[in-house]
Batch of 3 targets.
Target 1
Amino acid sequence: MSKFEVLSLAISIIAAIISTISLVRTRELAKEQLELERVTAELSRLQIKSITEQKTEKTKPKFNVSLTKLGKTYNFYISNTGQGSAYNVHFELIDCEDSPLFDAELSEIFPYQEMKPSSRIKLLASLHMNSPSKYQSMVSWEDVSGKKYEEIFWTSL
């Protein structure tokens, strides 16, 4: 073999090695790119889910029940601290034999047709020396679509 043939063969072998190395690296980069695309797709899905949950939270009511004393009178306050309206709101004390609430006031106020955000209902409570210091209450309501919800609260002085 002449020097020219040996040189041509060596250059061909080096070119083949470089091509093989390039092919291997390209495959590795393609695998990494696919993995990054999967991660990006998963992240996008989670972001969409988070945005959807935030939108639904903005339309949900959030209730709070408190028992307060102002002067000599006690009142239950049912507050909607959420960002959405509640419909057909009901309130009741659970497992309370000696209810401090007035039946006439309850039947007059409830069901409360629409409780808008940042609104509250005030109920007069007739507490005496033997009244319990804690009350368990339940607020039930419907959303715009008519789906029913209920939440239980423990209220104390």
Target 2
Amino acid sequence: MTVFADSSALVKRYAKEDGHELVRQVPLLVISYVARVEVPSALWRKHRMGELSLRQAELLLSLFEKDFFEADDQPPFVVVGMTPVVLEAAARLTRRYPLAGYDAVQLASAVLAAEADPDITEFAVWDKQLRTAAEKEGFTLFPP
């Protein structure tokens, strides 16, 4: 079993939110390159809302960026690139599901990754609409 994680799940690897203990137990996550934008955005939003101090936000962002760019020995992620194939698949998915643009990219990344590696069967997501779409695409939802 390999787990694809959208950014709502990936943020939990760094910030203490409901479900963080579940996400932190997964040793390797498959993620979309769009997380490079969404995770920092979520962490800075938490800072602006007073949920994280400036120091906490900077530290968590630093940890994420280290994992994203520098983890060579045992990387915590496999990153699906933002390619024209992914973007075209995302555009097609918006016809079937009421997804925001980046959510469609997340789902397209997961679908294409699962086609390349049938062990990718679970989709870690806390966003309701993306969760529904992922289930309709045949993924087992994480958490159940």
Target 3
Amino acid sequence: MLETALTTIEQRHLEKTDPAELALWALRGLAVLDPRLVAEERGGVLRLVTPERVVGQESLAKGAPNAIASLFEAGWTASPALRRAGAERMLHSAFDELFNHLDPYSRYVSAEEAAQARERRVGQSGLGLRLAAGRRDAVLIAFVDPIGPAAQAGLVEGDILLAIDGVPVDAKDLNLAASLLEGPTGSEALLSVQRGRSRRQVVLSRRPIPPESLKVDHVDGLLWMRISTFSSETGAEVANALRAAFYAGNPPPGGTVPSGVVLDLRGNRGGVLSQAASVADAFLPGGVIIRTDGRHPGARRVWRADGIDLSVGARLVVLVDGRSASSAEIVATALADARRAVVVGSATLGKGLIQVLQPLPNGADLLVSWSQVISATGWPLQGLGVIPSVCTSLGEARLTETLAALNQGRNPMAPVIARLRQARVPVPASEVAALRNACPPAEGREADRTAALALLSQPQAYEAALYR
């Protein structure tokens, strides 16, 4: 396990690091659990010592992973504190210390945590429906996932569920009904359902259901789209919502096409990178979305739009805040850099490092930062984040002044945006601080929506607020 982990770090991490240093840092993590243990390296030999004696020593000539494995075993034998902590905490502590020397986002994920993370990314295996209590103890289908097995079988909200695999169900024991719906991926469930006076049976096959990530509202002629996370189907959800709203430029007779779109990414901590590219692609007429760069050949990639703007050029405002991170920042960056959207809110988190996931033999995962995100025009996302053209975190008075200036064709944030787009790796810490202080990170607020409405109703202000 340690060999797989250290080889992954040595070959794929953004920064080239001496294997001996990696081994020493990992061993020093044991001191967090037992302060009496001291790790040191002398003349190519790793040593683990206490004030009283040498616990173990191994030559790095036999390979750092082998040396560490041997010294972990020696430490376990010699230290009651390590044995009380357990093997899993030893691994966590070792990798925590190692990654403290590399970057903020690489990490070791235990087998239990890895399983939970996979479930969040892909969704639980299920039938794509939720239940609720109805009248006379009836079990109602209260929600049907539009892309789940239940929807594909023609079930709709309001159908009454009578039995599951021949077991009658009623609202007195919804927990039983819910448990009967669960099962392993690929297994089948026989549902007896009633709609009106008609009864029928359907066979559904359980499969992973991605968590819902998109909420869509139509308000005052605008399309409001809120993405809470980037799961495995977010790109398809956004594309489908845009097709439904704009009909690819061909609305039905009497249909109303939205006059603008608000894409709300506030509080979105990220998710699947490819889905961020897909969401940006849905709004772009072509060109580079972003590129990623790293030491490993697989880390270097250019993401391009396919040339079809599903929103047919409708004015677009992207809302961000200090919690918007990673994939959310990629979308905002791509749309702002292409002058396809105006970004409103505050500086985002600034997580521009991409992690590769390496499964480990013990069921755990290792997440290693192997590439960094670079915008289409060349500035790095890491540390800087996305700086909005219209800043709402400086207070109501400043926002009022900004909107007034935009109505006159001037953008007070233009000098800051120009400096941001000229930034190149490595960006001095002083420049990062200066740019982010121009619109300090803050949580989303009602002023964000107010600014979005103002921009979408005033074409001159919108045009003036686009990145230049």
